[in-house]
Amino acid sequence: MSTPTVSTEKENAAPAGVRRTVRDRIQQFLAFASLIAIFAFFSIVSPNFLNYGNVTNILFSTVVIGALALGTTFVIITGGIDLSLGTGMALAAVISGVLIVNLGVPLPLGVLGAILFGGLIGFVNGFNVSVLGLPPFIATLAMMLVAQGLALVISGSTPIYFTDSPGYIELSIGSIVPGTDFPNAVLILAVAAVLAYVLLNKTVLGRYTYSIGSNEEATALSGIDVRRWKILIYTLAGLFTGLAGVLISARLGSAQPATGMGYELQAIAAVVIGGTSLSGGKGSIVGTVIGALIISVLNNGLQIMSIPQEWQNVILGIVILLAVYADMARRRA
Questions:
Q1: Helix axes 136-155, 107-130, angle to 10 degrees
Q2: Judging by DSSP bridges, how do beta strands 254-255 and 160-161 pair with one another?
Q3: pTM of the entire predicted model
Q4: Residue 255 pLDDT class (50, 70, 90 cuts)
Q5: 3-class secondary structure for the chain?
Q6: Within 13 Å, how many C-alpha atoms sit on residue 272's CB side?
Q7: What is the mean pLDDT of residues 175-196?
Q8: Is 327 left (phi over 0), alpha (psi -120 to 50) or beta?
Q9: How many other C-beta atoms lie within 10 A of the C-beta of residue 111?
Q10: What confidence tens digit (pLDDT) does each residue in 59-95 have?
Q11: Domains, the chain, ordered by start
């Protein structure tokens, strides 16, 4: 009698997995459809919205939020959160300025050093969460304050300008595409998104990320070293934060120690709007990229319509509430 029971359970499990996959696909489609609808709306109400220059500007403005969102997607899928994204990005930018401008480190090594320093920030977050057992909200909130203070202390509370390092600025605003002014930063974000997609969907790291977010206790009982993998996941998120620090400082032509506050909220919003569940165990890189584009299109379109900044924040907040409510409704269903 046991054999038919097992067979029946397997038969029932497969359709459930298929249904989950279908729901994820539908959710990504709905997010993409929302992006198209918002884009179409602003194209209709503003004749200056749909042109090459403005579309390029939208993509360019997506770069920093997108880079931060890619990293924090892994963290949120595990059921965690990272509030140190913005100030960690500013600190990584300052480190790039110190290495390249103040110490005269060669450009490639300076960029690598800034990205690795972002990884160090993520490592500390992961250690505090997984080894010390601190709640992710508290651990990363503390790191947000620490990074904010260190950025000001290391830079002397003054910007570090890359005036004598034009190659660094070209990383963001330059163009390697012949005959166009298409910014390099957008191409870098595209490469980073592909890398994040591969890591999340084609590697052991991605499988364990989903597993930890779905049921951390069961994952640990299966023999997986959850602590080690969570440290690795937070470190990976930190590397993307370091990349965002390089891109924003190259775009501005300076490392601004006070830059960064508020970026963490937009990055987390992009992840949530893209369909990643704050409860963990569910999310995608494609959805995150779509979410980042939605935020950029909203910001750009509202600015073109001359909507005051305070009302832009209100609208973005409403969009986030709707996205979270939709996720809760799906989980209840």
A1: 150
A2: antiparallel
A3: 0.89
A4: very high
A5: CHHHHHHHHHHHHHHHHHHHHHHHHHHHHHHHHHHHHHHHHHHHHCCCCCCHHHHHHHHHHHHHHHHHHHHHHHHHHCCCCCCCHHHHHHHHHHHHHHHHHHCCCCHHHHHHHHHHHHHHHHHHHHHHHHCCCCCHHHHHHHHHHHHHHHHHHHHCCCCEECCCCHHHHHHHHCCCCCCCCCCHHHHHHHHHHHHHHHHHHHCHHHHHHHHHHHCHHHHHHCCCCHHHHHHHHHHHHHHHHHHHHHHHHHHHCEECCCCCCCHHHHHHHHHHHCCCCCCCCCCCHHHHHHHHHHHHHHHHHHHHCCCCHHHHHHHHHHHHHHHHHHHHHHHHC
A6: 24
A7: 88
A8: alpha
A9: 22
A10: 999 999 999 999 999 999 999 999 999 999 999 999 9
A11: 50-332 (1.10.3470)
Structure tokens at 118: 């972002």
Residue count (the chain): 333
Q: Token pair of 182, please?
A: 């298409």
Owner of token pair 């939605």: 294
Q: Which two tokens stand for residue 162?
A: 């890359």
